[in-house]
Amino acid sequence: MPYEVIIDKNVEAAMRDGTILRADVFRPVSDGSFPVLISRTPYDKTRPIYKRVAKFMATQGYICVLQDIRGRYCSDGTFHLARNGRETTTDAEDGYDSVEWAAGLAGSDGKVCIWGHSYSSWSSWMAAPTKPPHLISLFGSGMAARILDNTRGILETGRRLHWMYQQAADARLREGDLSGPANRDEADALWYDVERFKWIWFLPLDEIPDHAFASLTPQLKDYMRIQDRETWGFDEIHPEVDVPTCSVTGWYDRIIGAIEQYEGMEENGPEHLRGKHRLIVGPWGHGMGVLTRNQGVLDFGSEAEALYEELLLEWCDLTLKGLEPTAKAPVRVFIMGENRWHDEHEWPPKRAVLTDYFLHSDGSANTSSGDGGLSMNAPDAEPVDKYTYDPRDPVMSLM
């Protein structure tokens, strides 16, 4: 029977340098002791999707901690963009300290799983190689093994600037600046409906005025200067991650490369954990709240649907409570076209055949209604496709 849930808000945790981070703690109403889940986010711990997952996990017998990372929302300190380099952020150290703090919460049984989606997955993978003594497992989704895989190898101007515009809302409030949007929703409304993406047309980008992204503008400019370099990747630290991991991603996730997290742990992680990692790939995009059957006009059927919290529960029941696994194999992938799940004991499957596909067209593949296509046959004499590159007229992304 599900537990009733009580929430302790803005519980303080002191980091090793004295900085205070704050978390909401979702607890089962019981005198017993329970495993602990912690997720560390820059996106506001009170977002509905976070609260939905945390409350559900608490009803299932887990203490669930949602923490604002350093310099974000209710936590003290200064936020530093992790993708600018490992040396620019304290996310690894803060992750260690937060896991150990969470393990000592009243009602904790001392076992901790760190979890998260996208940036929260990033912060989880940063904490894991520091080896917090009470960390038992990791559950991460929507995060690539390498930085450049997050960006598909290029600076996606619209997405990067929009993302920083969202983050700048909290930065402004922390500085007492009321001239801009006060939260993520207001930032989106202003970006799309009022300013109409205006900063993606600003040239040169390196001269964007400081007020555009508040105190985050210098970090944005630093990122743009190094955006074509691999500053660091999680594939470097797989040997140091000494806990079982579960990686969740989607075939349509714009942050590609999450599969390499699983492959890297199986190939380069500690040998005693080989075969204990999991990989789940659905026909999904980038969003923990939208593991749905539809991508655009495509409908993959009811089997494609999933709830994030149920995937997390299955993993935590296995790694924190020692319950029998419900999964038939370590790898579960949704095969589009067949529209059904396949269970695999390795990835890629040994029966898989690497196949080259070649681009083809009659010279008009440069529009959504063009004549481009893919084929296993190499092209003979085909005309060149051309397009106009103009930073003053950027191409919008649909993903």
Would you mind describing this structure in some detail?
- With 399 residues, this protein is α/β, with parallel strands linked by helices.
- It has two domains: 5-150 and 231-344, Rossmann fold, CATH 3.40.50.1820; 157-226, no CATH class.
- Helices cover 25% and strands 20% of the residues.
- It has helices spanning 48-59, 91-103, 119-127, 147-150, 157-174, 184-194, 217-226, 259-268, 308-319; strands at 5-14, 20-28, 34-41, 63-68, 108-117, 135-141, 245-250, 278-282, 294-295, 298-299, 331-335, 340-344, 358-360, 373-375.
- The protein has a ten-stranded mixed β-sheet with strand order 1-2-4-3-5-6-7-8-11-12, sandwiched between helices.
- The chain is globular.
Protein topology:
Layout lengths: L4 E10 L5 E9 L5 E8 L6 H12 L3 E6 L22 H13 L4 E10 L1 H9 L7 E7 L5 H4 L6 H18 L9 H11 L22 H10 L18 E6 L8 H10 L9 E5 L11 E2 L2 E2 L8 H12 L11 E5 L4 E5 L13 E3 L12 E3 L24
Helix pairs in contact: 1-9, 2-3, 5-6
Give a short overview.
The protein is an alpha/beta fold.
- Separation, N- and C-terminal Cα atoms: 40 Å
Strand count, sense and barrel status of the largest sheet are:
10 strands, mixed
Structural domain count? 2
Major sheet: arrangement of strands = 1-2-4-3-5-6-7-8-11-12
Average pLDDT metric = 92
Residue fraction in strands: 15-25%
* Helix proportion range: 10-25%
Q: Which residues sit in consecutive blocks of at least 5 with pLDDT less than 50?
A: none
- Count, helices: 9
Identify the CATH class of the largest domain.
Alpha Beta
- The global form is globular
Query: What name does CATH use for the topology of the largest domain?
Result: Rossmann fold
**Record field, number of beta strands:** 14
Any idea what the CATH superfamily of the largest domain is called?
Alpha/Beta hydrolase fold, catalytic domain
